[in-house]
Amino acid sequence: MPRPLLLAFGLAYGLVTGLVTGPVTGLNLGLGGLPASAQPMQPSLEAGGDRLTVEQARAAANRILEAMQSRDPNRRFSQFSEQLRAISSPSMVASTMRSQPQLLSWTLLSVRGGLNSTTVEASLQTSAGPRDLFMVLNSKGELDGYHLDLTDEQATKVASDFVTALSGGHFITARSYLSLPLQEELTPGVLQAKWQQLQRYTGTFVRVGRAVAAEHNEDSQLVLVNTEFNRISDTLFVVLNQNNEIVSVDFPQDPIRPR
């Protein structure tokens, strides 16, 4: 009997690159760089429909970064979009903030407008060093998603941190490890549903094991993350692009049951 669909998304990328060679099932999502519609916004652009002006986007981004710097979880939570608030809480925000470095200062860079969102890039100075942040804003100027530039991190750490966030119920943080195009397809609620669906088959999550770098080419890296549940142990296939953005995740079809 074929294994039921567990957690599979972004497989189109894995199959094209040839990094996912085993049997896979489930949802295929088209991936690539930023959507063609996400072109740099001009300062003269007027807000219309679901888009912000450059000035509105920059003002919203500054408010979000000020909340991050203040480390006030209630203030931070209030700036989330409706879909993020539905999957989070001020206490979860406070927990996430405790694990993050202190934000010291920032400089806003590019502003890019899409069909239904606006992406603002910022260069951050933190207590752990410089970091680049991409914030996705909705038409109200609320935070609808984000992505930190982790190009200089080890791919195995990025993949392991993603699974750790997922298993801990921090679906907003887990989503931030995905490429922005994949984030458009996978809301935090979708990630939560897939994780719950997985555990109906595997049993309750126990721990994240070793992450091992496997196949790679000039564009992609496959990382295998061992994950233990109370009924089986399984290996999560995580494919990252050259910027360490996750573009594909899948569980193989033959789980190993613990002795």
Task: Please outline the helices and strands.
Elements: E1 8-9, H1 11-17, E2 39-40, H2 54-70, H3 73-78, H4 82-85, H5 90-98, E3 103-113, E4 118-126, E5 129-137, E6 143-148, H6 155-167, H7 171-176, H8 180-185, H9 188-202, E7 205-216, E8 220-229, E9 233-241, E10 246-250
Antiparallel strand pairs: 1-10, 2-3, 3-4, 4-5, 5-6, 7-8, 8-9, 9-10
Quick overview:
The chain is about 30% helix and about 30% strand. With about 260 residues, the chain is of the alpha+beta class.
Characterise this structure.
This protein has two domains: 8-31 and 154-250, Roll (Nuclear Transport Factor 2, Chain: A), CATH 3.10.450.590; 39-148, Roll (Nuclear Transport Factor 2, Chain: A). The chain has a five-stranded antiparallel β-sheet, sandwiched between helices. The chain contains nine helices and ten strands. It has helices at 11-17, 54-70, 73-78, 82-85, 90-98, 155-167, 171-176, 180-185, 188-202; strands spanning 8-9, 39-40, 103-113, 118-126, 129-137, 143-148, 205-216, 220-229, 233-241, 246-250. A hairpin with a 3-residue loop joins β8 and β9. Residues 1-48 have low confidence and may be disordered. It is α+β, with helices and mostly antiparallel strands and 259 residues long.
